[in-house]
Design goal:
seven-stranded mixed β-sheet; 14 helices; alpha/beta; single chain; binds pyridoxal-5'-phosphate; about 35% helix; Aspartate Aminotransferase, domain 2; Aspartate Aminotransferase, domain 1; four-stranded antiparallel β-sheet; about 425 residues; 13 strands
Length: about 425
């Protein structure tokens, strides 16, 4: 097969209908962010938006900005902007808190709705915070609720009538494998189980249709593909059909039907806003909103198409240039089953990840041996795929990865 050259990749960039989107981002010269699945890049508009929020809305508007700058409604306003990205309807998505906290809210509400049942079910390999939140809720219930975590291949058999809630992540954080949301939700619901989907690695990357899947709850991250900034607020999805019965156990004053009545008895709002707890973190909300607004310039279908093209190119180039160095593709080979990152396993994965970071390539490492490369079509170019693979090749060819300094395990990977 003919070798793909750097010039070929540059030609692909020239024909890229989404190339204009890169201009929207702050892109430090010479650095390639292959970790947008962990922390998205900084949109230029966010710098202006935060300046406005800080100088005008906070500096001058002060407390008036809760009403005059739209701060108070921001959780629902931004939620309504995220809704079309995940197949939700208006009034079904709320931006608040962190993904972990929203997981807890969803788990607590769903287990209360199915209170004659006792099992919180998930699968091995789910993101740890999902499992930890189940464990915390089990402890809080004095072990009335029991967690059950099964190997993925046993999941469908584990859908029994004792299960109250099934919690799954749609896109696996290590391998990027996409689960069949519609099929699993249907099988679980046939047994009366309520299903919560963690969309942290899906939202802004792949097409998601919560309505078609009839999902019961969902949560997701703002700082990955939505480019909402470090520690950006997260979101929770509750379909209209559950909003009157689903209870927010973190029943803070902002979810009250009339927070400024300062009643001493909790009465939840009749809408998704009952899933608010406390005061929105406005600097984070502002940054997230400008990240989410960028999605109005394109469509998830167009982004997904380019993501697949970039990922396929990356995998071919890795085979072409690094085929002899012991990398194993840890993501599905079928592009339709693989979401927004490509994972390779390598026994020296950690040292290689550190060595390429020295060459201005940001990726990440997941224990025990996974190198993850985020494929974010909004700002990555075809030529970036070439340059990243060339840097990996150089690190392998010269043995640069084999330095003592790269063998020291960093606390954060
Ligand atoms: C699937 C999944 N859920 C949740 C989280 C993180 O939750 P939080 O934002 O609360 O730290 C991550 C972070 O990478 C994740 O991959």
């Amino acid at each position: 097969m003919e070798q793909i050259t750097r010039a070929d990749c540059q030609a692909m960039d020239q024909n890229d209908p989404l190339a204009f989107l890169r201009e929207e981002f702050h892109m430090p010269e010479g650095l390639i962010n292959m970790d947008g699945n962990s922390l998205g890049a900084l949109p230029k508009s966010t710098i202006q938006k935060l300046e406005q929020t800080i100088k005008e809305e906070w500096g001058i508007g002060l407390i008036r900005s809760w009403s005059e700058a739209g701060w108070f409604e921001s959780p629902i306003r931004i939620g309504n902007k995220i809704a079309p990205l995940i197949g939700a309807k208006e009034g079904e998505v709320l931006v608040a808190d962190t993904t972990s906290i929203n997981l807890f809210k969803a788990l607590a509400a769903a287990s209360q709705m199915n209170k004659d049942r006792s099992i919180l079910l998930s699968e091995e390999g789910n993101f740890p915070t999902d499992l930890y939140m189940m464990q915390g809720l089990s402890t809080l219930s004095n072990n009335r609720l029991q967690t059950k975590v099964v190997p993925p291949e046993q999941l469908l058999d584990a859908l029994t009538e004792e299960v109250a809630v099934l919690l799954l992540t749609q896109v696996n954080y290590k391998t990027a494998e996409i689960k069949d949301m519609q099929l699993i939700t249907q099988k679980a619901q046939e047994k009366g189980i309520l299903v919560i989907w963690d969309l942290s690695h899906s939202v802004g990357s792949i097409e998601v249709d919560l309505t078609a899947a009839n999902a019961d709850f969902a949560v997701g991250c703002g700082y990955k593909f939505l480019n909402g900034g470090p520690g950006a607020p997260a979101f929770i999805y509750v379909p209209k059909r559950h909003q009157a019965i689903a209870q927010n156990m973190l029943s803070g004053w902002m979810g009250h039907a009339d927070p400024f009545a300062f009643s001493e008895d909790y009465q939840p709002k009749a809408s998704i806003e009952r899933f608010r707890a406390g005061t929105p973190v406005m600097l984070g909300m502002s940054a997230l909103e400008s990240g989410v607004d960028l999605f109005q310039k394109t469509s998830i279908a167009a982004l997904r198409k380019k993501c697949i093209q970039l990922s396929e190119l990356f995998i071919i180039l890795m085979r072409q240039a690094c085929g002899d160095y012991g990398f194993q593709l840890a993501s599905p080979t079928d592009a339709a089953q693989r979401a927004g990152h490509v994972a390779f396993s390598h026994p020296e994965g950690h040292a290689i990840y550190q060595a390429i970071k020295r060459q201005q390539i940001i990726s990440d490492f997941r224990t025990p041996d996974i190198l993850r490369f985020g494929i974010t079509p909004m700002y990555l170019r075809y030529v970036d795929m070439y340059d990243v693979v060339a840097a990996i090749q150089e690190v392998m060819e010269t043995g640069a990865w084999d330095r003592a300094e790269f063998k020291v395990r960093s606390a954060i990977t």
